[in-house]
Write a structure and sequence with these properties.
- By secondary structure, this protein is an alpha+beta fold.
- It folds into two domains: about 250 residues, Bira Bifunctional Protein, Domain 2 (BirA Bifunctional Protein, domain 2, 2-Layer Sandwich), CATH 3.30.930; about 100 residues, 3-Layer(aba) Sandwich (Rossmann fold), CATH 3.40.50.800.
- It contains 15 helices and 16 strands.
- An eight-stranded mixed β-sheet has the order 1-5-6-11-10-9-7-8. Strands 13-12-14-15-16 form a five-stranded mixed β-sheet, with helices on both faces.
- Helix 5 packs parallel to helix 9.
- The protein is elongated.
- Bound molecules: adenosine-5'-triphosphate and magnesium ion.
- Adenosine-5'-triphosphate binds next to strand 6, strand 10, strand 11 and helix 11.
Length: about 425
C-alpha cells in the first residue's frame, strides 16, 4: 500500500475542521490589522534561500528540499515564508506604494528534519511581515498579534521571550567578543558549534546540545555590547509592550537562526510538558537589511512565523476544542427512487439561495436517513414523496423540536430564511 512520505500528514475530518477554523480566525484578525494576504510560490529559485541570507543557518545548510526541474533550474521547496514575501515585495515594487505594508500568509513549508511531535517535514505556518517602519512601535505591534491570537483562542500559560541583537555595529562588536570568549573552549563544544564558531558564533548560543553547558551560561551578553541607538530601540520596544499590557521576559540566549535579524528578536512559548524544544509556537524579529540583501532598496521589516501544528497541539493539551462542526441547514431525502431528480434540483436551488444542504444520493432507508441527518446536525429535514411532488406542498420538519410544517414550494425559501434566521439568534 502506498503511504505518505515520512514527516508529512493528511488533513481531513476533525483536523480539517480545526485548520479551516484557525485560518478563518486568523483571516478575521488580519483584517483588523489592515494586513494584506500573500501567496507566493511553494518553490522558488534555490538562490533565494541559499544566497548568503542564511549560508550560516541550519535551515539552509541541511534542511531544505532542493531539486532541479526538467529545464535544469535549481529550485527549493520553501523552508520558510519571509524570503518569498520579500522577493515578491521587491519584484512587484511594492516599496513604491505607501508604507508600511503589512503582509500575512498561511501555507505549507518544507524542511528535511527528524520528525517528532510538533516537528514535520511539511508543516504549516501563519506568518506576518511589516515593511517600511523602523519604529519600535511596530516591533511591539507585531508581537501583540501573536498574543492577541492566543488570547482569542483562550490559550493560557504563554510566555513571550524577547531579546535584541542590536544594529550592525553592535552585533559586530558582540561577534568579536564571542569569538574571543569561545576560543579556549572550542574543544568542549559540539561539532555543529565548532562550525558555527567559524560561520556565525551567535548561533552557538542557540545550540540545543550545548544548552546546559557552563561555558554557555557565562558567555558574554549582547546587552553589554549595544550602542546607544540599539539600546534606545530596545528600551522603546519594552515601553510599547507595556503599553499593550504584554508580559515579557528578556532572554539573552534568543538569537534566532537567520543572519538577517537586527534589533528585536522574540519567541513565544507554550509551557507544555514533554514538548521540549517544540514548545516554541511562534518566533520572529526585525530584519532591517533583508530587503536590501535580497536586491531591493533599503526598507526595514519586522515579522514572525507561527507553526500551526504546534498551536493545535497546545490547544489540545489545554483542552481547548475548536473542532465544532457547522450544523447543516437542511437534509433532503426521498421516499423512493422516483424523487431523485426532484431532490437533486431542490437541493441545488436551496444551496444557490444560501443554505447548507445535504441530500440522499443512495436511496437509504427512512431510518438511516434520519440518522444521517442527526449526525450532520441538520436543523431541518425535508422528505419528498409522490404526494409532495404533485401537490407542491412540502413537509418540513424541525429536527430539534420535531415540529412539522406544511410549506408551499413557492414559499420554501422565505420559510427557511425566517426559521433559520430565528435559529441563529438563540
Ligand atoms: P525550532 O527551533 O523549533 O526548530 P525554528 O527556529 O526552526 O524552530 P522558525 O523557522 O522560526 O522555527 O519557524 C517558526 C515556527 O514554525 C516555529 O516556532 C514552529 O512553531 C514552526 N516550525 C518550525 N519548524 C517546524 C517543523 N519542522 N515542524 C512543525 N513546525 C515547525
Ligand atoms: Mg528549526
Amino acid at each position: 500500500m502506498l503511504q505518505k512520505p515520512k514527516g508529512t500528514y493528511d488533513i481531513y475530518g476533525d483536523k480539517a475542521i480545526e485548520v479551516l477554523y484557525l485560518k478563518k480566525l486568523i483571516e478575521a484578525l488580519m483584517d483588523k490589522y489592515n494586513a494584506s494576504y500573500f501567496e507566493t510560490p511553494i518553490f522558488e529559485s534555490s538562490e533565494l534561500f541559499h544566497r548568503g541570507v542564511g549560508e550560516t543557518t541550519d535551515i539552509v545548510s541541511k534542511e531544505t528540499y532542493d531539486f532541479k526541474d526538467r529545464g535544469d533550474r535549481n529550485l527549493t521547496l520553501r523552508p520558510e515564508g519571509t524570503a518569498g514575501i520579500v522577493r515578491s515585495f521587491i519584484e512587484n515594487k511594492l516599496y513604491a506604494d505607501s508604507l508600511p505594508l503589512k503582509a500575512w500568509y498561511f501555507g505549507p513549508m518544507f524542511r528535511y528534519e527528524r520528525p517528532q511531535a510538533g516537528r514535520y517535514r511539511e508543516f504549516y505556518q501563519f506568518g506576518f511581515e511589516a515593511f517600511g517602519s523602523n519604529d519600535p512601535m511596530m516591533d511591539a505591534e507585531v508581537i501583540g498579534i501573536i498574543v492577541n491570537l492566543f488570547n482569542i483562542l483562550g490559550l493560557k500559560g504563554i510566555k513571550v521571550n524577547i531579546n535584541t541583537l542590536g544594529d550592525k555595529e553592535s552585533r559586530e562588536n558582540y561577534r568579536k567578543a564571542l569569538l574571543d570568549y569561545f576560543k579556549p573552549y572550542l574543544n568542549d563544544l559540539c561539532e555543529d558549534c565548532k562550525k558555527r564558531y567559524e560561520k556565525n558564533p551567535l548561533r552557538i548560543l542557540d545550540c540545543k546540545v550545548d544548552k546546559e553547558n557552563e561555558i554557555m551560561k557565562n558567555a558574554p551578553k549582547m546587552v553589554d555590547y549595544l550602542n546607544e541607538e540599539s539600546k534606545n530601540h530596545f528600551e522603546k520596544v519594552k515601553e510599547y509592550l507595556d503599553a499593550l499590557n504584554i508580559d515579557y521576559t528578556i532572554n539573552s540566549n534568543i538569537v534566532r537562526g537567520l543572519d538577517y535579524y537586527t534589533h528585536t528578536v522574540f519567541e513565544v512559548e507554550a509551557d507544555i510538558k514533554g514538548f521540549g524544544s517544540q514548545n516554541v509556537l511562534a518566533a520572529g524579529g526585525r530584519y532591517d537589511h533583508l530587503v536590501e540583501f535580497i536586491g531591493g532598496p533599503s526598507v526595514p521589516g519586522v515579522g514572525f512565523a507561527l507553526g500551526l501544528e504546534r498551536l493545535l497541539l497546545a490547544l489540545e493539551k489545554e483542552g481547548i476544542d475548536i473542532k465544532e462542526k457547522e450544523p447543516l441547514d437542511v437534509y433532503i431525502f426521498g421516499a423512493s427512487k422516483e424523487e431523485k431528480k426532484y431532490i437533486l434540483s431542490l437541493g441545488n436551488t436551496l444551496r444557490m439561495n444560501g443554505f447548507n444542504v445535504e441530500i440522499d444520493y443512495n436511496n437509504k432507508s427512512f431510518k438511516s436517513n434520519f440518522k444521517k441527518a442527526d449526525s450532520l446536525l441538520a436543523k431541518y429535514i425535508i422528505i419528498i414523496g409522490e404526494e409532495e411532488v404533485k401537490s407542491k406542498i412540502l413537509t418540513v420538519k424541525n429536527n430539534k423540536t420535531k415540529e412539522e410544517y406544511k410549506v408551499k414550494l413557492d414559499n420554501l425559501i422565505e420559510f427557511l430564511d425566517e426559521k433559520l434566521g430565528d435559529d441563529d439568534e438563540d
